[in-house]
UniProtKB/TrEMBL annotation:
Alphabetical UniProt keywords: Antimicrobial, Bacteriolytic enzyme, Glycosidase, Hydrolase
EC number from the UniProt entry: 3.2.1.17
Source organism per UniProt: Pseudoduganella plicata
Top-level lineage group: Bacteria
Protein name, as recorded: Lysozyme
């Protein structure tokens, strides 16, 4: 399974394209980032990095690579059946979070606790800024969309009977 083209385009529309390096939380705040929210490294960009421009083709290539990496991680770590909508939401979430943030979601899914996975995703709307937890209001709508297909699953039995396998034969 791969991320649907519609979900890929929708996710791309949520990310502002920056053809340069920038600090993701504003001037002299956050982490050095480029393109479509591509994390370059922890901490603010150097003056040399802030002066660095990137071209649209490089952004498109990197976007494809990062989606493929999110898909790969899900296929490696999630061992339950997912619908296309669930897979799409999980790719978007994985793309936009760290292993520390997404592993509890994978664990909940593997335990067939889809509502818990949805709740963890929905709650992942905070960032650390200078050691303090801060609401990233721009993530609220994104997390609601990503987690929606998991909130809809009411029981483990219903989930397993209505879902498509993420993995091929082992």
């Amino acid at each position: 399974m791969t991320m649907s083209s519609m979900a890929r385009a929708r996710m791309r529309a949520t990310e502002k394209v920056m053809l340069r390096y920038y600090n993701d939380m504003g001037k002299r705040k956050g982490n050095c980032t480029w393109g479509i929210g591509f994390y370059a490294h922890k901490g603010i960009c150097s003056e040399d990095e802030l002066a660095r421009m990137v071209d649209a083709a490089s952004v498109d290539i990197e976007y494809g690579k990062r989606i493929a990496e999110a898909e790969r991680r899900i296929k490696l770590k999630v061992r339950v059946a997912l619908t296309q909508d669930q897979f799409d939401g999980l790719v978007s979430f994985t793309y936009n979070t760290t292993n520390v943030a997404n592993q509890p979601v994978y664990d909940a899914l593997n335990g067939k606790n889809f509502p818990r996975a949805a709740q963890i995703m929905s709650d992942s709307v905070y960032v650390r800024l200078k050691g303090k937890k801060k609401l990233a209001s721009g993530l609220v709508a994104r997390r609601a969309e990503e987690s929606a297909p998991f909130h809809a699953v009411k029981t483990n039995a219903a989930a397993s009977s209505k879902q498509e396998e993420v993995h091929g034969p082992n």
